Amino acid sequence: MQTGENPPLILLGASTGGPPAISEVLENLGTGTRAAVVIVQHLDARFSNGLAVWLSEQPNVMPVALAAEGMRPTAGRALLTASNDHLTMRQDLTLAYDPEPRDYPYRPSVDVLFHAASRYWPTLGAAALLTGMGRDGAQGLLALRQAGWLTLAQDEASSALYGMPKAAADIGAASEILAPREIGLRLVRWSLSNAAMQRSKGSNHERTKRT
User: How much is the pTM?
Assistant: First the structure.
């Protein structure tokens, strides 16, 4: 798949207190974005569909669907984990579920998706680690930052549990620490900047072809 065909990619990871934080991020990101969103929420698979429906019903939120094996991130749509296995990304940029690592304490794991995206997604994306217990997602967020992504973490004041975002902050994985509303607005600015950069690259490519 060519780089120019891929939408800007936003990854969100959350655990305890995640649904309202995710909702606030998506509400402020809005429905006009051309970004694709993929969400990992620590949640038993039996409740995933209910969360997707609830998120989709919130005001100014893009459509939220369950991530199925073989799907690709799509502009203007959010995909939510739908299995107790880990959501990951293949080299062909499709999403997949993997039971490994079986002994990982967090299921589905934010780290697994973040690390896979850092390896395979061909353009620079953005990721946010939201409220939750433990350290899941911190190392993956660091890998994304080292790859050049915009990396955000939720602040302590707005977190139901300041575990995962604190772990990210402690190791320097987050370039910015913000409340969910500000995370959504920051992602809007990033998405617009990304779109402008892609248009500029396209224009330069067309001029090069003509010369």
Answer: 0.93
For 179-207, b/e burial (b = at least 16 CB within 10 A) is: bbebbbbbbbebbeebeeebeeeeeeeee
Q: Catalytic pick from 15, 48, 109, 191?
A: 15
Question: What average pLDDT score do residues 27-42 get?
Answer: 96
Is residue 15 part of the annotated active site? The answer reads: yes
Question: What are 157-205's pLDDT values in tens digits?
Answer: 999 999 999 999 999 999 999 999 999 999 999 999 887 776 666 555 4
155 is known as an active-site residue: no
| Alpha-carbon span 209 to 159, nearest angstrom | 50
Judge whether 78 and 55 are in contact, CB under 8 Å. Answer: yes
> For residue 82, is it left (φ>0), alpha (ψ between -120 and 50) or beta?
alpha
Domains of the chain: 3-210 (3.40.50.180)
118 is catalytic: no
Given the residues 42, 118, 155, 158, select the one marked as catalytic. 42
The tokens for 195 are 């779109």
Active-site pick, 85, 111, 136, 155: 136
Q: 33 is written with which tokens?
A: 């974005």
